[in-house]
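look at this fold:
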Amino acid sequence: PAPCGASGRYGSQVAVFGTSLVSKLQGLTVFLVGSGALGCEFLKGFALMGVACAEGGELTVTDDDVIEKSNLSRQFLFRNHNVGQSKSLSAVNAVRVMNPGLRARALQDRVSPQTENVFDVPFWQRLDVVVNALDNVKARLYVDTRCVFFGKPLLESGTLGTKCNTQMVLPHLTENYGASRDPPEKEAPQCAVHNFPHNIDQCLVLAHSEFVGNFDTNARDVLDFLDKGAGWPAALAKANESASSILDKLRGDPRVCCGMAGGVDDVLASERCTSFEQCVGWARRKFESYFRNRIGQLLHNFPPDATTSQGVPFWSPPKRLPTPLSFDAADPLHMQFVMGAANLRAFMLGVPTPADCRDSVAIAKILATSAACSVPSFTPTTDASIETDNKEEDERRRAAAAAAQIDEQTQIDNAVTKLLAVKASLPADFAVKPNDFEKDDDSNFHMDFISAFGNLRARNYAIDEIEKFQAKLKAGRIIPAISTTTAMATGFVLLELYKQTLYGGDRFEVRRNAFANLALPGPNIILTEPAACAKITSGQRWDPDMYMDVDEVAYPDPHTLWDKIIVPAAASMTLSGLRDWFKAEPRKLLLTELYLPTADGGSGGVYSASLPSMATKNETNMSRKLVELIADMAGTPVTGGTLYPLTQAIFSTRS
């Protein structure tokens, strides 16, 4: 490693912090989760600070993503020749040029419950600090739970356009990341999205929803049906799907589809496509259904002069009176929709596409000459399902429509019988491939479909249309990353890394969380002390389920979420032994219920003293070893040296 003297590479740091701190930085074991915009900045900072650059130091970087062209503008460690390569590997190679002494290893594994064999107990136990550079809450929460479980400091940060924030999560000092949540994003009312949009955002919400439904969800449902056959509806019902939802998955709701089938029936039977011409015909009929038939049905139900039950004009602001569109092959937007939908359908069904599948003239020729592109006439019905913002009237219409329908179970049985016959006639090589939404690939037709759909929907309602690039930003909920915001966030975190290395678990009063907005004058920067972790004490608590105050005993009293009880010699302990261990001095706790982690991320009961239905199970499990119960519930064998959290254990005192 470079010398730590005043004249060495790290002379400036030595002048400010001293040789001891710089040496400690070089020996740190750091886990950086993510190597995108924030991750690149962190890696640059680590290399320049000398983090993990000496014997005993190690920097582990993991990111399962690959570099895309759109990343290059804000993830500065990457260049054109890196497109398609691993982010973590490319980033580590780039910072090694800055500091060849950096002891870093790059992994391509996502940090999740599925990779706990990679990021195992010994890995977490040897860490000094964890730094998050993630872009989603779910991953942040998982890393947070691991840091709490293993008692490791977590340096958290995030950016949103010109805004950024940092949070220091310090064992036994501060609250964890998951202790506070942002309010959920506001969603547009479904009646506005589906029937009464009044801005382009609502049009794009429906466009994205229909993309997912037609090219992703439908494909996955088909795969499930082909796998489970006649047992698929029962499997859905077991997963708490309603009969109407199962029916929608099987063949769609004709009151909504307006002239076309939906669900599995659309893919396998009514609109099964084996040629590109048939895909183009399907796309043309989808245009008719979305932008003409559905609008015609809406106007049939609510004519321009319609009034509400209070006598107010139905088409009052913010509602906009729509106009059906007539297909015109000379209109570029009409052709963009048909071209995008046809190519997506072909990809999903494995249909070969011609070389001119992007040529609107060639598509127009297919529309004009192929019998597969015929469009049936449509007549509005009286039982169409249309949601409004008047719940009382909606309920009345739904009840009237339901009364006229055949029993849903009978419809499900009929649909399954039809589809099973179709399944039996499918060729052996029949395959369906879902389309996972990817906004940044301009060759996959995803944004062609969504931008065309959103703008055609806007044209129905006389809403201003937008360019494809703007549609990408809105549909992908993209707020452009700004490099100065990223640099500021990582700068605040790296200052806290100095403090953490210097003080360890002390000097809570000098730690700071940061909140900044570079768009405001100043700019606006607020530094606050991290919130202290809450102490759990014995006392009365309001129980909303029992609707009364109940006495709760804290053990130990007090404790925080950072505290844990480790059961010794658990590898050979039975459930009976665990119960006796808790019962003994000084704990004196009576185990009344015990739940263990399951393979699906949930929990399952292995003991309950209060449920008569568990009596036989309790007796059987009492003589079994804990490791056997854990393995049965988790679906994987228990390996030596692994720590397993008890998902939930309920105790009572002797009193």
Notes: The mean pLDDT is 88.
